[in-house]
């Protein structure tokens, strides 16, 4: 998201880092992941990790698969197809994306469930 800010008596455009709401992560992410994995012929199990999800979305040597519409959605910055997951979530459920206020640490080995 870009916003107009005042700096030294001069207006300028500033990029605001976006974040996904905790409400989305707690109430919608699991369902979205499960539906995507089913479309890929996979299942969301208690052992499924973010590494597994990454391999399903960005398989080596293949085109990116369209998780949450990120591979086909127009990027708001360059207007080209393909955008970040946070931008895709914004286009799907804009009330779950805003300026980031906190960072929740995670790693690829964490289990999704």
Distance between the termini: 30 Å
Task: Please describe the biggest sheet, giving its number of strands, its sense, and whether it closes into a barrel.
Answer: 2 strands, antiparallel
Number of strands: 4
Low-pLDDT runs:
1-13
Would you list the SSEs in sequence order as H and E?
EEEHHHHE
- Rg from C-alpha positions? 16 Å
Sheet/helix structural class: alpha+beta
Helix content: 25-40%
Strand order of the largest sheet: 1-2
Helices, by number, come to 4
Overall mean pLDDT score? 86
Q: Beta-sheet strand percentage?
A: 15-25%
Silhouette: globular
What labels would you give this structure?
two-stranded antiparallel sheet, alpha+beta, 29% helix, single chain, two-stranded antiparallel ribbon, 113 residues, disordered N terminus
Please write out the topology.
Layout: E1 2-7, E2 10-15, E3 18-20, H1 22-27, H2 29-39, H3 50-57, H4 85-92, E4 97-99
Antiparallel strand pairs: 1-2, 3-4
Report what the structure shows.
With 113 residues, this protein is α+β, with helices and mostly antiparallel strands. The protein has helices at 22-27, 29-39, 50-57, 85-92, and strands at residues 2-7, 10-15, 18-20, 97-99. The protein has a two-stranded antiparallel sheet. It has a two-stranded antiparallel ribbon with strand order 3-4. It is globular, with a radius of gyration of 16 Å.
């Amino acid at each position: 998201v870009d916003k107009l800010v005042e700096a030294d008596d001069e207006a300028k455009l500033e990029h605001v880092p976006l974040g996904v709401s905790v409400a989305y992560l707690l109430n919608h992410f699991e369902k979205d992941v499960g539906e995507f994995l089913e479309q890929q012929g996979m299942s969301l199990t208690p052992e499924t990790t973010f590494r597994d999800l990454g391999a399903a979305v960005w398989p080596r040597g293949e085109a990116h698969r369209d998780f949450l519409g990120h591979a086909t959605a127009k990027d708001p910055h360059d207007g080209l197809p393909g955008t970040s997951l946070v931008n895709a979530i914004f286009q799907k459920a804009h009330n779950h994306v805003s300026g980031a206020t906190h960072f929740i640490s995670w790693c690829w080995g964490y289990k999704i469930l």
